[in-house]
Design goal:
202 residues; alpha+beta; tt1808, chain A; six-stranded mixed beta sheet; 6 helices; 29% strand
């Protein structure tokens, strides 16, 4: 994934109102609008995860909306507003439907977000993790299908990995690592039944 700088020093509200008309996904990072250009493999994996979540929502009649088009307002440690665009977002329908005329931008924490790791892996493992934790998102998936992160995260040898980060009672993420034939466990979708390998090879 590559990013292109488009403008500077915006608030989240300005970011939402000034989103470019060009097709693509955009984030607000350190006051600047950044265009996100995922690979086709990246998009295919995001679509697969979204479909699996959607099937569970429909099968169990859960009060969730699943989307790959939602922007979330977060905040850095320095209290700078950010606008993040996860690959997949699961949001409570009550929150979503409370403001039907609003843009696809959330100020409240969604139930779950998924980030698929690209070359700038520290964004997902460090920056976004801290921002999503601060916002209070109960569940955050980091999908490192290319095993890009360091060995301190992935082990040695480095293997494709899914991390399911779950907020504990201290509002701190506990990172649960899944590789190979291990079944991925999600508090939001407890009846999901696929292994890390099945998901990563989708």
């Amino acid at each position: 994934m590559t990013t292109n700088q488009l403008t500077q020093k915006l608030t989240f509200e300005q970011f939402v109102n000034q989103l470019p008309d060009e097709e693509g996904r955009y984030e607000l990072v350190n006051g600047e609008i950044m265009r996100i250009l995922p690979t086709r493999q990246h998009e295919d994996l995001a679509d697969f995860i979204l479909r699996q979540f959607d099937k569970e929502v429909e099968r169990l009649q859960l009060n969730y909306r699943v989307s790959g088009r939602i922007v979330i307002q977060t905040e850095t440690k320095q209290e700078r507003e950010q606008g993040r665009h996860p690959d997949v977002t699961v949001v409570d329908k009550t929150i979503w439907e409370a403001h039907p005329t609003a843009y696809s931008a959330l100020l409240e924490p969604p139930q779950l977000t998924v980030e698929i790791v690209s070359t700038n892996w520290e964004d997902d493992y460090v920056d976004k993790l801290e921002e999503y934790q601060r916002l209070g998102i109960p569940e955050y998936w980091i999908v490192d299908y290319l095993a890009i992160a360091s060995r301190s995260y992935l082990g040695n040898p480095k293997l494709p990995t899914i991390f399911v980060c779950v907020l504990d009672e201290k509002q701190t993420y506990q990172m649960n690592r899944y590789q190979g034939s291990e079944i991925v466990i999600s508090p939001t979708f407890p009846e999901l039944n696929f292994t890390a390998e099945q998901l990563l090879n989708s």
